[in-house]
Specification:
The protein has 12 helices and 24 strands. It has 522 residues and is of the alpha/beta class. The chain has an 8-stranded parallel beta barrel, surrounded by 7 helices. A 5-stranded antiparallel beta sheet has the order 17-21-14-13-22, with no helix packed on it. Helix 4 packs across helix 5 and helix 6 packs parallel to helix 7.
């Protein structure tokens, strides 16, 4: 990983919604990623699933398992699957640095991770993590023996991916050292496993993907690794990726961080968002560095976080919260302000149509249904009022004697936007299905310091109805400014700092066919 090298060396080379309670899982464990996508392969320079459909895997990389192997276990991986929505987990088995070469028993941790991934139905990358041993040929003999064993064990497991050389560096080139090494190790794997994906690192800490694109390996299911750290690597590396894609060279970002290349600067979340948008647009799969509680900006966990998952917002670093949001985007919807000319691509569904406001903001302050046949409940899904996300959670109660179509209803949540940036909206999870809910932003007729913006949630016909005496169930929403800067929610009109459990909340509103029926507007 790049973080082991100083910034000066690199410069020379390069010249939640979480609360303190348990989350309702996003993923339906009855349909796992592997059940959905099956055997992966390469078609026309793109990773595709069993149906030939392009697929983007997203997930986490462990730190070195000789140091942070306690976070590599089935409980943690299950939490990452169900709460973060990961589809791939990378097991970083260092070769040097007190890794496999001096301690071959580390492969037992790899086997533990693969067994967990098989049970959980997620993809798993077996990473031969070279670093200070910069030339992969240094331990080629051991590599061939290791991958021969792995291929023999997992030839019938479609979720296994082999990564042959983490980050070749120190003047090692694609044509001189890396490609010949990869050819030999690939032959060893293919003698036992003809189908599973192989990933090969590229020169200069897996940044020279353009060189690999110009002289690709003959194996039809080989991909080429790119690694980046958002505070250090920018457009030049994205240009290299686009060049590789133009050559039909399939790319997999097996490691990236929100920090700079040292691991300690940042996190650079705006730059990270540029990268994740870029990767989503091209359906390039990725694994974030790292699942550890190491005291550095790129680590996902705060010091002392549980090694079995179940993390609350206080257990995640700024990087961890950002990456968790990004992995969950595949099952979310998003929309931007009506003045957005080019909506951001976030990896989820994007609603580019103008917002509909269900009658507009008329300035009405009193609901037409004061008896509360429809009641909006709210809880605060984020204990930090000054981070870069607003996370309201809603539930609609139908106290009337007849069913109510959700498509007739709209929810408004009022807040103060200090950034004055375009806004982004996501549904992290909803009982009625996140794909059936969209959001649009507007400005109250009378803008106030406590409410100069609102988000309006609308329901599609697929959301169904709320039966008489029934409820909608949780609707977990999330709002971000486009530049991922911080809010200050303390004085927001609809915000309830201490509302950790659902409660009737009249500072957010319900409109039924355009008529205010619950709540008091600011």
């Amino acid at each position: 990983m790049l973080k082991k090298w100083s910034a000066s060396v690199l410069t020379a080379v390069l010249t939640l919604s979480l609360t303190t309670s348990v989350w309702v899982p996003q993923a339906n464990a009855a349909t796992t990623p592997v059940q959905k996508h099956g055997q992966l392969s390469i078609a026309n320079g793109q990773l595709v699933d069993k149906n030939g459909t392009p697929v983007q895997l997203k997930g986490m990389s462990s730190h070195g398992i000789q140091w942070y192997g306690n976070y590599v276990n089935k409980d943690t991986m299950k939490w990452l699957r169900d709460d973060w929505g990961i589809t791939v987990f990378r097991v970083a088995m260092y070769t040097a640095e007190n890794g496999y070469i001096s301690n071959p028993s580390l492969k037992n941790k790899v086997k533990e991770a693969v067994a967990a991934a098989q049970d959980l139905g997620v993809y798993v990358i077996i990473d031969w993590h070279i670093l200070s041993d910069n030339d992969p040929n240094i331990y080629k003999t051991q590599s061939k023996a290791f991958f021969s064993e792995m291929a023999g064990l997992y030839k019938d497991s479609p979720n296994v991916i082999y990564e042959l050389a983490n980050e070749p560096n120190g003047g090692v080139t694609w044509n001189g050292q890396i490609r010949p090494y990869a050819q030999e190790v690939t032959q060893v794997i293919r003698a036992k496993d003809p189908d599973n994906i192989i990933i090969v690192g590229t020169g200069t800490w897996s940044q020279d993907v353009h060189d690999a694109a110009d002289n690709q390996l003959p194996d039809k299911n080989t991909m080429y690794a790119v690694h980046f750290y958002a505070g250090t690597h920018g457009q030049f590396l994205r240009d290299r990726i686009d060049y590789a894609l133009s050559k039909k060279a399939p790319v997999f970002v097996t490691e990236w961080g929100t920090s700079d290349a040292s691991g300690n600067g940042g996190p650079f979340l705006s730059e990270s968002k540029v990268w994740t948008n870029f990767l989503a647009n091209r359906k390039i799969s990725w694994a974030n560095w790292s699942l550890s509680d190491k005291n550095e900006a790129s680590a996902a966990l705060q010091s002392g976080a549980s090694s079995t998952g179940g993390w609350t917002v206080n257990n995640l670093t700024a990087s961890g919260k950002f990456v968790r949001d990004e992995t969950r985007l595949g099952a979310t919807t998003s929309t931007t302000d009506p003045d957005t000319t080019t909506p951001p691509t976030t990896g989820g569904d994007t609603d580019t149509s103008p917002p509909t406001t269900g009658g507009g903001d008329t300035g009405t302050t009193t609901p037409t249904d004061p008896k509360g046949k429809l009641v909006l409940q709210y809880r605060n899904g984020d204990s930090n009022p000054t981070d870069n996300a607003i996370r309201p959670v809603f539930n609609i109660k139908n106290n009337s004697g007849t069913a109510v179509n959700l498509s007739d209803l709209k929810i408004r949540y009022y807040y103060s936007d200090e950034s004055q940036q375009k806004q982004q909206f996501f549904i992290d999870w909803a009982s009625v299905g996140g794909t059936h809910i969209s959001g649009a932003f507007g400005t109250p007729t009378t803008s106030k310091t406590t409410a100069n913006r609102y988000v309006e949630l609308s329901f599609g016909s697929g959301a169904g109805s709320i039966p008489a005496g029934g409820q909608s169930g949780d609707i977990q929403a999330r709002i971000h400014p486009a530049d991922w800067s911080n809010y200050n929610e303390d004085n927001d009109y609809s915000y309830g700092a201490n509302q950790s459990a659902l409660t009737d909340w009249n500072k957010a509103s319900i409109y039924n066919k355009g008529t205010l029926v619950w709540g008091t507007t600011p």
